[in-house]
Fold:
Amino acid sequence: QSALTQPASVSGSPGQSITISCTGTSSDVGSYNLVSWYQQHPGKAPKLMIYEGSKRPSGVSNRFSGSKSGNTASLTISGLQAEDEADYYCCSYAGSSAWVFGGGTKLTVL
Amino acid sequence: EVQLVESGGGLVQPGRSLRLSCAASGFTFDDYAMHWVRQAPGKGLEWVSGISWNSGSIGYADSVKGRFTISRDNAKNSLYLQMNSLRAEDTALYYCAKDIMGGELLPPGGFDYWGQGTLVTVSS
Structure:
């Protein structure tokens, strides 16, 4: 159960698109198209943004999208807005009834 | 409205035990698997444990296996985490989270509702 690898930080200007990567192994991300993504603002509980790799829960903006290629999952945010500035975490099923999170990525909207 | 309210956190000495509780409301509790996720101060999220609707399937992170026990009482709409042999590295905010998919741990989906967390500090 090793943590998934995410970039420590990404940044973009309002209106731009950014992508956050999440790299695992053939035992987690690579084996299951079941990555979820969470947004966390300072002092707040995480919020589910994407589940099952690319599905959005009700109420989540369609500016958020998820994809996967091999052992790497990605979260893309289009039309960046100031309120998107937050920490983002990916999470994958890792087999044997266990899950693993990524280390988190701090998104800065310039 | 879905609500998850954690309790039971506090300051505890290394090697001692603590039991966390999570009171759920606003949804049919026994229709969903539940999880515990923790976050050390200034650090990232770490999945701790998950339990299916009928306690038939349970999983633990390697870091807590053999020391922590997850359980639930569907009659009381409550989730629990018994933490034994606590270590300094267990210091964290512990969140209770609801599974989005349904009652089983598989297929795994995501965690769609979270509580506000209860803080556990392990220190002498």
Remarks:
- Chain B touches chain A at residues 35, 37, 44-47, 50, 57-63, 95, 100, 105-112, 114-117 (CB under 8 Å).
- The mean pLDDT of chain B is 96.
- The longest strand of chain B covers residues 18-25.
